[in-house]
Design brief:
By secondary structure, the protein is an alpha/beta fold. It has helices at 2-13, 18-41, 50-58, 63-136, 141-169, 182-200, 218-235, 266-269, 289-299, 325-337, 349-361, 372-381, 398-404, 423-430, 444-460, and strands spanning 178-181, 203-207, 213-216, 241-249, 252-259, 303-309, 313-321, 342-345, 366-369, 386-390, 413-418, 436-439. The strands form 3 sheets. Strands 2-4-5-7-6 form a 5-stranded mixed sheet, covered by helices on one side. Helix 2 (18-41) runs antiparallel to helix 4 (63-136), helix 4 packs antiparallel against helix 5 (141-169) and helix 6 (182-200) packs parallel to helix 7.
Amino acid sequence: MAAVLVVLARALAKKERPAWYLLAGYILTFGLRLTVVLPSFRFWFYRESFPFYMVRCARLYDIPFTLGCLVFVSRRYALQFDRTEQLAQELEARVTQRTQALQNETDARKSMMLNIFHDLRSPLFVIGSGLDTLAAAPDALPTLLPVLQERVGFVRRLTEDLFLAAKLEQKQVLLNEDRARLEALTAAVCSACQAEAAHKGVELRTDTGTPLPVWGDAVRLEQILQNLVTNAIHYTPSGGRVTVVCAAENGQACVKVTDTGCGMDKDTLAHIFEPFFTTKKQGEGTGLGLALAEQIISTHRGHILAESTLGQGTTFYIYLPVLEQQRAREQVQWGVDHKLRILAADDNKKVLNLLEKDFGRFGLEVLTCSRRGEVRTLLETQPFDALAIDEGLTGGSGVEFCMSIQGKYPALTRIVMTSSPTREIVDARRHGVIDGYTLKPVSAATLLEEIRACRRSEKQK
């Protein structure tokens, strides 16, 4: 009976309707059970009789409670069955959605392969025809050479873009990050494009006076700016204007590239960042420039937007986090003052070399290793303030290693380096297995910031 009362109390607390049936049955049964003790009180209105005695002996007073239990259990099963059906429908909807997404991805890959085949076949056909012509008429070399060089250059650019796109998709691109002046990169690109703009009769205006210090790969950023400015010049007719402006907006570095060209409609604008989508003539572009630009800017923790009006022109916006010099100096000073000792573990030697170089610019020293055994040995033999370990370290995940050393080094700040925060990483942070995580590509500044945030949070506890 006590267990039933507990179940009843929980059901009533959750405001479950079947609980009222059980409660009504219990009240009726409790009232009828009082008849069992009536003879002992010798009430004047109570007279013992054979029918009353039989009812009491047959325990008929338990019938209401039994019926209440049956209704309660039946209703609970019915509710659970409805919930199971609802979950099944939600699961079916998710499976359908995922299947559709996979189908779309497969179709996109097929379309991409067809585009690659077409883009490679056309220049190769031109090159092959040119070589056949040269074999028959060597005197045609001066005429055919510029055409062959242009087509070979196109194939080379397409191959390089495909290689970069594949690396970005697999998150294997290692950015040579350092302090960069975005306004200086923009000015250099615009200066290099002035001759092209003048040749086409397009006015190229620039406003790059606003200092925009950022943290990133200067070569990749310059590549993106070059692509945007040359595209703007290409789509702007003679007598038009291209304007490039550097500004600081809402704490972010912004580069705005505006042209007075033909513009785009909404349908075209919705697809410009898709691989192999281009509005240029066949053979004039690879269709990968804006797709690569979006991925590279995203890797720099920024974003790129586009606005366009058909017949009036297009504007591209690049937003990147501003490198706060004062905060960076504070982070470095904090590390130097406390003689911060960091151990970084990653099975990618290039990542470790970049981290060593990056921390060296800050005047800090970081010890690196690439195997779990080395990490364990270094932790046992030397004192460290922080451990930055790759989630995909050979021999087991970074979370598993941090779990194996949990409680051994109370003063050690444990950071996991990952491409994306998985459920395992989030749960490990919530349960104290790790102190934090940072997204790749990792730099000294982002790692120091995460260590500082973890230690500040630990002190507040």
